[in-house]
Amino acid sequence: MEQYIIKGGSPLVGExxxxxxxxxxxxxxxxxxxxxxxxxxxxLPDVRDTAVLIQAMESIGTVVERLDRxxxxxxxxxxxxxxxxxxxxxxxxxxxxxxxxxLGRFKTAEVALPGGCNIGSRPIDQHLKGFRALGAKVEVxxxxxxxxxxxxxxxxxxxxxxxxxxxxxxMLAATLATGKTIIENAAKEPHVVDVANFLNSMGASIxxxxxxxxxxxxxxxxxxxxYSIIPDQIEAGxxxxxxxxxxxxxxxxxxxxxxxxxxxxxxxEIGCEIEEFDDCLRVAAPRRLSNTHVKTLPYPxxxxxxxxxxxxxxxxxxxxSIVTESIFENRFKYVGxxxxxxxxxxxxxxxxxxxxxxxxxxxxxxxxxLRAGAALVLAALVADGISVIDDIKYIERxxxxxxxxxxxxxxxxxxxxxxRDIQKFKLKVG
Length: 430
Ligand code: UD1
What we know:
Layout: E1 3-7, E2 13-17, H1 22-31, E3 39-42, H2 48-59, E4 63-68, E5 71-75, E6 83-84, H3 97-106, E7 108-112, H4 125-133, E8 137-141, E9 144-148, E10 156-158, H5 164-175, E11 180-184, H6 190-201, E12 205-207, E13 213-217, E14 225-228, H7 233-245, E15 249-253, H8 261-269, E16 273-276, E17 280-284, E18 293-295, H9 307-314, E19 320-324, H10 335-340, E20 344-348, E21 351-355, E22 364-366, H11 370-382, E23 386-390, H12 393-396, H13 402-408, E24 412-416, H14 419-429
Parallel strand pairs: 2-15, 3-14, 6-7, 10-11, 18-19, 22-23
Antiparallel strand pairs: 1-23, 1-24, 3-5, 4-5, 7-9, 8-9, 11-13, 12-13, 15-17, 16-17, 19-21, 20-21
The chain binds uridine-diphosphate-N-acetylglucosamine.
Uridine-diphosphate-N-acetylglucosamine binds near residues 120, 126, 127, 165 and 304.
């Protein structure tokens, strides 16, 4: 079984390059099958979630060629099947985007119900409501969702909750519907904007992405394009907190500082120094950090995908902090693991009350999901002694070369598989 082994205690210092946004990449890959012409996607993160989606696209006849590690050429001219029931696809959340893209292009699609991180019940009612509003007949049975329409036509859709997934999915289908679609109460996340920009570069007519009203004028067909994905806001944020928790000094390169404002604001509030440049950001934590209150909210609020990382950092900060999770109901599963490392956190409903402690001690812990797993790596980076983290498959879903990037910043972390690897690491770090 693959694990990370980490010896804590080194401040992270140096530069790190952020990759393309995983969540934008998933929407963009799905959208790339909406044309018969070749599409080149650049800055594609090489992580497990994108690999799984590519596999699913290939299973229905899409040809995906890797031009280099971060560039693919997608050719969906010969899609022969509209059903995606690949065993892997159930493991990722974004499988549902294939429903929107295939429904848009072929007016029919059948995709296995999505999986993804177990951070709450994660319903998909808003996706289905959107497809139905566009005139599709939608059915869920035996673990599959099917959507069909003779005539997909534009509609006025009011989202009952702000949802990234449903906003993107409806945008995908509506792009190739007849007439106009208006999505109200749309999600405003940078990756929603990136998927809209990608579709527009293929000839779609989408306006308002990034605001809460998106207007889509359906077009008959889309054409090929070459497009570079935006930097990953959450990978960047994770390294910002890695710098903060280890009292380090890190230049985070290839980012859009505007997308990181809610994260920077909290770091400044708890005592970090942040310097912003055009496409990079320096985070330094010269002294012990202080407490704060934070509540996760849709963009531009503080992202739920950064909640475990900030809570972990606050668990070592001075004073009492309160972290409220307002997006997913089951996102504090990592707290038990942090307690084993010495954290003093009490969870009541969707709120964590955190009494800052002076230090963590290394432990054997398990990553309960992707972002919580990353937060546990941060905890181990600063803990006294050695930690071993299990279930790193979750972390690898969304972080490319995580141990390598941390090692380049001075961390002692290695991916190991056997007891012998563990002993070798222990000998090396003393
Ligand atoms: C996406 C991201 C995930 C991030 C989340 C919130 C991807 C692949 N994943 O997940 O990393 O944590 O956005 O920024 O991009 N909801 C409904 N009905 C629906 C859809 C959602 O009630 O049909 C609720 C959810 O339960 C949740 C809230 O809406 O409480 C937000 O969910 P949503 O933004 O859709 O999250 P995902 O797209 O699943």
